[in-house]
Amino acid sequence: MAAMHEVPASPDVVVVGGGVIGLSIAWRVAETGRRVVVVDPAPGRGATWAAAGMIAPVTEAHYGEEALASLAVHAAERWPAYNTDLEAVSARGTGYLRCGTIVVGADRSDRLALDEIRAYQASLGLEVTALSGRESRELEPALSPNSHGGAHVPGDHQVDNRLLVAALTAACRAHHVTFVADRVAAVDRDRTGAVSGVVQDTGIALRAPTVVLAAGWDLASVQGLPPGTLPPVRPVKGMTLRLQARALAPRLSQTVRGLVHGIPCYLVPRHDGALVVGATSEERGTDQTVDAGAVYALLRDARSLVPGIDEYELVECATGLRPGTPDNAPVVGWSSVPGLALAAGHYRNGILLAPVTAAAVADLVAGRPLPDVMAPFGPERLLGHARGAPAAGTAAR
Ligand SMILES: Cc1cc2nc3c(=O)[nH]c(=O)nc-3n(C[C@H](O)[C@H](O)[C@H](O)COP(=O)(O)OP(=O)(O)OC[C@H]3O[C@@H](n4cnc5c(N)ncnc54)[C@H](O)[C@@H]3O)c2cc1C
Q1: Which of 202, 213, 351 should be mutated for ligand 1, with most atoms under 8 A from CB?
Q2: pTM over 0.85
Q3: Could you report the per-residue pLDDT of 269-292, keeping only the tens digit for each?
Q4: Which CATH superfamily is domain 101-154+234-324 in?
């Protein structure tokens, strides 16, 4: 298959997968002067395309995921600088909005459950303030008069994930990243077992001393590796709906997250009147069809929190496969195969974690150790073997 630009004769790094993770890595590595190739048949069209774009370290903090919550807070702190750099180099807006988030319950038991979650989030040192129903409606008048107050989370923001893909692609091009529209069938290794490149589905070989696997849920599709090299990553189907406000429809000024009779639901307003409603979470293998019942349930729950969505146009139902790991945390670091780095398994938080993941992989490629904040998320935790050394040829140029 043809490359979109001429592929360099000897790239330094091949990135397999051009979702938010692969694109962010490619950009950050290429800006250090390395020749980078991204191989993906449809960059940006995986889970990244279906996402809501919440940058939500607080409302995504779950029981038992304290290390992940701490990584998420660190990632959110990096977002403003990452976004400033990205908008400057790409000359494009990403729709990054520091809008905050309001959390409400549909009934009294939802409110009680949210109170417990808020106490847990506060115990982690996260900024979250309790609100009554009246206080939440003062902050967000479009909320239903029946909603039960919950919390205000001033630090949970959002970005437009699709504008983000466009900006990342432009940033990569500005740093001469080459895109190859093909799948990678296998990693190639030399006689010592170290990475020597990849082989595309079309049979074309690309030589490089460093390969980064950022293939989302489909990591295991890449062959040529010894058993036990890749951590288990499974697809978790999610659906979001895209709505558009009509002229007189009430608009939200911040993200609304809610519990509706125990089921989570969110509404993420963009600056142009678009609204993302989500999301389902389904263990259905690689199925990506749209269920009528799931669309109905999302609209029903979103409408119970914000009745004014009746006045919106339903524009799109988007499904994607989140890359889930056994502990819901990402896998970032050198694998046991010299020259092969992994950046996958970002599950519910790949948009949030993109800046910190890209910085960590850029450090590895430059011959530096994994940053402390990422150290708990190396592949060895899920595979039980020691971390491999980088291959020769990965040091900074
Ligand atoms: C409904 C939904 C809502 C979400 N909302 C949020 C949110 O609000 N905030 C947040 O932070 N996260 C959210 N997420 C999670 C986030 O979207 C993912 O964590 C993130 O997109 C993962 O990025 P990725 O680049 O690893 O994977 P992907 O975006 O899936 O990209 C992987 C890429 O790899 C390519 N690929 C796969 N195999 C190969 C191969 N063999 N050769 C070449 N290329 C290959 C694919 O074509 C694809 O483009 C959401 C996800 C879903 C589904």
Answers
A1: 351
A2: yes
A3: 999 999 999 999 999 999 999 999
A4: D-Amino Acid Oxidase, subunit A, domain 2 (3.30.9.10)
